[in-house]
UniProtKB/TrEMBL annotation:
PANTHER family: DIS3-LIKE EXONUCLEASE 2 (PTHR23355:SF9), RIBONUCLEASE (PTHR23355). Its EC number is 3.1.13.-. Specifically recognizes and binds polyuridylated RNAs via 3 RNA-binding regions (named U-zone 1, U-zone 2 and U-zone 3) that form an open funnel on one face of the catalytic domain, allowing RNA to navigate a path to the active site. GO terms for molecular function: 3'-5'-RNA exonuclease activity; metal ion binding; poly(U) RNA binding. It comes from Scophthalmus maximus (Turbot). Keywords: Cell cycle, Cell division, Cytoplasm, Exonuclease, Hydrolase, Magnesium, Manganese, Metal-binding, Mitosis, Nuclease, RNA-binding. This is DIS3-like exonuclease 2.
């Protein structure tokens, strides 16, 4: 499912502040001036007492730092440059003072932002359109430094200085002065040797009287542009723990290997080992969280089961293993590797639902009609033995050839007690029921915003990209997704019923109203008949209003991207903290209650949900959780999920940059996604990547002019003719315009540009 990004707002009260708060009140008295003092660049932070009182009076607001911050009630607060951000970095939870209206300014709001690896919104100020009056604010306190304060970048030698200048790759991070003692021994004498060496630096201090932070070099990564140094830099910047698990953690794992299920544990569970149960996953998956079963009953209905790895059996509350899992909160998937939440003995062996092996599970079993109506429901701890590990390709082949007799050679090893035909029929039955459930979900008002996902084929030895392709989301994927959703919804209802003040659920707030209104106005002007009044109406619009030709899917991709921008992020929360039940709702799924239950090997939130479920069924220990603890962990899971998603994106961008360098230049058609006054954004159709093209850098362009009516923006490009006796050729650029581009590697490591190709002259 698509996860929607947005600001993560959290409230604080006077009780929040303590001696451990990020900013010491002593900061208030620093750099007050006096003889010989430096000029103050930044305002000193308020004290915690002043902030607490200001929040109570409504004079201050707490938000998550970005260039433009959107308030819960729809107001934008613009932090105008580095001084207004007052040493806060992207992601930090800050307290902002909104300036009086006479100090507000007319500032640009980016319509579409498709920048390179690091996107500094400040740099967009001179480039973007849609000028809107925004509240202007300044950061007066940092509540929580969520940014790691680590950055990758390059060293620059400064003659006659006792320090070197560290220039981060991410322009949102300030330049950092680092002691020469931290630098390589021959850096001062041979700085040119290190021009392309990538380092990690950590900010240690940033005083009020300097534009530059102070820091220490943490590590020399290696050559910029190489995959492993760049990957380690990404992980470190985003504070992803990729260290080996400690002996203390490993001591929590079973010692007697090979491990078998204890007889006393077997007695407590429903024995499903003789049932036809199987997994469907990507071909390369090692952490198999979920399995499915579907048995036809004499009355024509089905007994359908979702069986999830019982990770909570192995991860006991409050031990070292639980502690590290809760801190990591999620596995992080990169193109070439996975940073696991749990030790590999668990995630790839003891918990993974590997075929032909007895495994502990939590099962949800329904009696269900062929149309998808649930007649009964059972939750419980169980034991299964998966009869085969199917890939999505295997399952897709079975769906596409319902009458075919598959041979043993066409499939992975199969338990001989279950004929291949039995497994094939179960897949077909699951597919049929899933189609009905899916149709009911969308007719009932659900929304899915699919965006193109780039996948890579890697050289097995070097792990370098050999090829890339847009991942195809097929019926086999939809089958699995449908039953995971069904299990998650059923579990959410069950644990909320049992623990109304303690359940960990997942909510998805509706999109930001102001941005929806602006998008509706733009679509109206573009002649796009789209209904943004609800999730269901939007889904119907996206699937019915974009024509019927070879570029229909491209137009849908562009419009999907436009519709994703107003969407907020789905969030974990504790039901005892969010008081109004209406706010529990999941907007995109259009269900009142939702949670995550189906991926406990890779998500810590699911482990908490499993513990709640076990306690509700009296087949687990008494819960020692409080509302505050669940909410704190939910908030941490939200943060780490956001980080995991960003790291995954950066890994994909890294590999695609290498692919362009090694295999480019690459030609493709592209479709315009958004138009600014001096540039435009395109979706490169062959590869599903988004790039910005700057008019001033287009070779062969004589001039360009920008025209805007309402929300609709157009550029007219005037091409210099090859034959000077002929008139210049004009090209209109607006949303949905098709253009030809070539992707070429830039001089900078891992960077590439989309170069606009000249249009053919009219004959």
């Amino acid at each position: 499912m698509t996860d929607f990004d947005g600001s993560n707002h959290r409230d604080i009260s006077s009780s929040f502040f303590s001696a451990s708060t990020t900013n010491s009140p002593a900061d208030k008295s620093k750099n007050k001036g006096g003889k010989g003092s430096k000029k103050q660049v930044f305002e000193s932070y308020m004290t915690s007492e002043e902030v607490s009182q200001g929040l109570k009076r409504g004079e201050l607001i707490q938000v998550q730092c970005n260039c433009i911050i959107t308030q819960l009630h729809g107001r934008d607060i613009f932090l105008d440059g580095i001084v207004s951000r007052n040493r806060a970095l992207n992601g930090d939870v800050v307290v902002v003072q909104v300036l009086p209206p006479e100090q507000w300014k007319r500032t640009p709001r980016p319509d579409v932002i498709v920048e390179d690896r690091y996107n500094d919104r400040d740099e967009l100020v001179s480039k973007v359109q849609n000028i809107a009056l925004s509240d202007k604010g300044t950061v007066v306190y940092i509540v929580e430094k969520k940014h790691s304060r680590a950055a990758t970048g390059f060293l620059k030698f400064l003659p006659d200085k006792p320090f070197a200048m560290f220039a981060p790759v991410d322009h949102r991070v300030p330049r950092i002065n680092v002691p020469l003692a931290d630098c390589p021994l021959d850096f001062s004498s041979r700085p040119g040797d290190y021009i392309s060496t990538l380092f990690i630096c950590r900010i240690t201090n940033w005083s009020t009287d300097s534009n530059f932070a102070e820091g220490r070099l943490a590590k020399t990564l290696g050559q910029a542009g190489e995959i492993e140094p760049e990957t380690e830099g990404i992980l470190t910047e985003y504070d992803v723990d990729f260290s080996e698990f400690s002996d203390e953690v490993l001591d929590c794992l079973p010692k007697n290997l090979p491990w078998t299920i204890p007889p006393e544990e077997m007695k407590k569970r429903r024995d499903l080992r003789k049932e036809c149960i199987f997994t469907i996953d990507p071909a390369t998956a090692r952490d198999l969280d979920d399995a499915l079963s579907c048995k036809q009953l004499p009355d024509g209905n089905f007994e359908l089961g979702v069986h999830i790895a019982d990770v909570s059996y192995f991860v006991e509350e409050d031990n070292s293993l639980d502690s590290i899992a809760s801190r990591r909160a999620t596995s992080v998937y990169m193109v070439q590797k996975v940073i696991p939440m749990l030790p590999r003995l668990l995630c790839e062996e003891l918990c993974s639902l590997n075929p032909l092996t007895d495994r502990l599970t939590f099962s949800v079993i329904w009696k269900i009609t062929p149309e998808g109506k649930i007649l009964s429901e059972w939750f419980g701890r169980s034991v299964i033995c998966s009869c085969v590990k199917l890939s999505y390709d295997h399952a897709q082949s079975m769906i596409e050839a319902p009458d075919k007799m598959f041979s043993a050679e066409e499939l992975p090893p199969v338990d001989p007690t279950h004929p291949i035909d039995e497994i094939h029929q179960a897949v077909l039955n699951l597919h049929s029921i899933a189609k009905n459930l899916r149709a009911q979900r969308f007719s009932g008002g659900a929304l899915r915003l699919d965006q193109l996902k780039l996948s890579f084929t890697l050289d097995k030895e070097t792990m370098m990209p050999q090829g890339c392709y847009v991942y195809q989301y097929r019926d086999s994927n939809k089958l699995v997704e449908e039953f995971m959703l069904l299990a998650n919804i059923a579990t959410a209802n069950h644990i909320y019923r049992k623990f109304p003040g303690l359940a960990l659920l997942r909510r998805h707030p509706p999109p930001k109203a102001k941005m929806v209104d602006e998008l509706q106005e733009l679509c109206d002007q573009l002649g796009i008949d789209i209904d943004l009044s609800s999730a269901g109406a939007l889904h119907k619009s996206l699937n019915t209003t974009l024509g019927d030709d070879e570029y229909t899917s491209a137009r849908k991709e562009v419009l999907t991207h436009m519709c994703s921008r107003p969407m907020q992020m789905a969030l974990y929360f504790c039901t005892g903290v969010v008081k109004e039940e209406q706010q529990f709702k999941h907007y995109a799924l259009n269900v009142p209650l939702y949670t995550h239950f189906t991926s406990p090997i890779r998500r810590y939130a699911d482990i908490i949900v499993h513990r709640l479920l076990a306690s509700s069924l009296s087949c687990g220990p008494h819960l020692g959780l409080s509302t505050e603890e669940v909410e704190k962990q939910a908030s941490h899971c939200n943060d780490r999920k956001t980080v995991s998603k960003r790291v995954q994106e950066l890994s994909s961008e890294l590999f695609f940059g290498v692919f362009v360098k090694e295999c480019g230049p690459l030609d493709s058609e592209a479709m315009v996604m958004g138009v600014l006054d001096q540039s435009f954004d395109v979706l490169v159709l062959r590869y599903g990547v988004q790039k910005r093209i700057y008019c001033k850098s287009v070779s062969g362009l004589d001039s360009f002019r920008h025209h805007k009516v309402g929300k609709k923006s157009e550029l007219t490009l005037v091409w210099t003719p090859d034959d000077l006796e002929k008139a210049p050729v004009e090209q209109i650029i607006s949303v949905f315009t098709l253009v030809d581009v070539q992707l070429r590697a830039d001089g900078a490591p891992m960077k590439y540009s989309a170069v606009l190709k000249r249009i053919a002259p009219l004959i």
